[in-house]
Design brief:
Order of helices and strands: EHEEHEEEEHEEEEEEEEHEEHHHHHH
Radius of gyration: 21 Å
Oligomer: single chain
CATH class of the largest domain: Alpha Beta
Largest sheet: 7 strands, mixed
Helix content: 25-40%
Number of strands: 17
CATH topology of the largest domain: FAD/NAD(P)-binding domain
Bound molecules: flavin-adenine dinucleotide
Distance between the termini: 41 Å
Shape: globular
């Protein structure tokens, strides 16, 4: 690679996408000089990234499986009297494990992977970036991985928002598999459920989650519902060791992208599943594809990948429009119940992986609109989501 530039790849932002890109680049191009520039004092923020095993295609596992992650062979959903064990592997990566992994990767890279913290990038261009400190760094390929776009709200949005606690219990939790939707009868602020990941018998992540019309998270209300949930399951004594909250955009229409001055990946480039808000499946695929070509071909690779996913993103926006515009907030839970009641594991897996076929989409949709859904309003939503 050329020495004209300070590095081959400059990844701006030190979150999920850039960590995955760096891991894939170390695998496919071990001699490439990669720099990650992160604005804060540490990589990876305060996240837990979950994914289905089917989100990561077998051919990506040769580099992805190095990443430390929790694995469960199945998970559960519970909607009142309806209960299902979904026999799809489920996994989670904790930010602190991810951070250590990337730091170790850099330490073992003979300076090919460099991590710079407290580096606030002010301007980004195709071949160079400028930091707040006025330092300038040149790269054969700059990739903008700075997380969500500030302008995303322009397109019309619903929100998936959550407030979570990591807790240490005084005795073991009753269930050793994740419960990704435990839906209480009381449906306030849209579709509401509790999400539970049992990392260890006495260490859980619990999230109070809403598919809501508003982005505001109410920590006091959520803390009360998490406390009540733990008490209902016989756990009065517990210690909260960490909190985690977030609000994922669920757009109704294609975002109006500002004219890009550099390539954009991760949330910044719109690489997320618009109907789940999750980005890991697309971030892994993007990392795999981009890392296999030289920096000069990264743009072409991203264009091809975007084309491959375009119709699925349109379909996701249609689902969001149906969910948030046409279904009254307190009826939203029926949509998710029917999704789990009517679909086999194979379709559920492909749906979450953003790898569904048109037939899968039809099956998701037929299980999705509540009856009676006015046909003309449905058609109008379809046109607006294109
Ligand atoms: C709390 C939470 C939980 C989530 N859980 C899941 C999940 O379970 N599964 C899933 O698939 N998705 C999940 N998501 C959605 C999505 O995967 C995450 O938001 C993911 O972190 C997005 O990756 P990213 O690399 O695009 O952005 P981020 O991981 O947010 O990284 C962006 C980084 O850029 C840095 N940055 C910003 N501006 C600058 C600048 N000017 N200069 C330098 N650095 C800058 C930020 O500090 C940050 O570290 C979750 C989101 C949230 C908020």
């Amino acid at each position: 690679m050329t020495a004209l530039f300070d590095c081959d790849y400059c990844l701006v932002g030190g979150g999920l996408q850039s960590g995955l890109l760096a891991t894939a680049l170390r695998h496919y191009q071990p001699h490439a000089r990669v720099r990650i520039l992160e604005r804060t004092a540490q990589l990876a923020g305060n996240h837990t990234w979950s994914f289905h095993s089917t989100d990561v295609r077998p051919e990506f596992r040769n580099w992805f499986s190095q990443l430390p992650h929790h694995q469960w062979p199945s998970y559960r959903v519970r909607f009142g009297d309806y209960h299902r064990v979904v026999k799809l592997g489920y996994n989670s990566i904790e930010a602190n494990q991810f951070r250590r992994f990337i730091a170790d990767l850099a330490a073992a890279s003979d300076a090919h992977l460099q991590l710079t913290m407290n580096a606030d990038v002010k301007h980004l261009h195709r071949h160079h970036v400028q930091l707040d400190s006025d330092e300038s760094i040149s790269a054969h390929c700059v990739i903008d991985c700075r997380g969500p776009q500030p302008t995303m709200a322009d397109t019309g949005l619903g929100f998936q928002k959550f407030f979570g606690w990591e807790v240490q219990l005084h005795r073991p939790w009753h269930c050793d598999s994740p419960i990704i939707m435990d839906v209480p009868v009381d449906q306030t602020d849209g579709f509401r459920f509790i999400y539970v990941l049992p990392f260890e018998p006495q260490r859980l992540l619990l999230q109070d989650t809403y598919f809501s019309d508003s982005a505001a998270v109410d920590p006091i209300l959520s803390a009360a519902s998490l406390t009540a949930y733990l008490q209902e399951h016989g756990h009065r004594d517990f210690t909260v060791t960490r909190t985690e909250h977030g609000c994922l955009p669920m757009p109704f229409a294609a975002p109006r992208r500002p004219s890009a001055t550099a390539l954009a990946a991760g949330y910044r480039g719109g690489w997320f599943h618009v109907a789940t808000g999750y980005s890991l499946p697309l971030a892994v695929e993007l990392a795999d594809q981009v890392a296999q070509v030289p920096p000069s071909q990264a743009e072409r690779e991203l264009t091809q990948l975007r084309r491959r996913h375009q119709w699925r993103s349109r379909f996701g926006r249609l689902l969001n429009r149906l969910l948030f515009r046409l279904v009254p907030p307190n009826a939203r839970q029926q949509i998710f119940r029917r999704f789990y009641q009517s679909l086999p594991e194979s379709v559920i897996g492909r749906f979450y992986a953003h790898d569904f076929s048109q037939l899968d989409a039809l099956r998701v949709l037929l299980g999705r609109p509540p009856r009676p859904l006015h046909f003309r309003r449905f058609l109008r939503s379809f046109q607006e989501s294109l």
